[in-house]
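Hi there,

I know you've been waiting on this one. I reran it after we fixed the sequence typo, so this is the corrected version. Both the input and the resulting structure follow.
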Amino acid sequence: MIKYTKQFQNKLEDLFAESQYILRYEKGNFKSGYCVIKEKGVVIINKYYPLEGKINCLIDIIRTLSLDLSRFSESNRKFYLELTQIELAL
């Protein structure tokens, strides 16, 4: 189910575009590869991560945040529900 392609990354980014969080790619030395500032609704991912690392971070973040499903389109809602059911193979 998880594909490490730019198109799959774009689908994950679309979830953030429809959510209450702002997704940014910045340089930083985050221990987990990303930083979530819940008070401001900002998610920052290390821009120097390879594609696979960015996708794994996005999936990890999506699973830990409680996103408002009412803001999602039908296709993104279905995609979000599928993502929350998948086990991430590391």
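Quick highlight: The chain is about 45% helix and 15% strand.

Best,
R. S.
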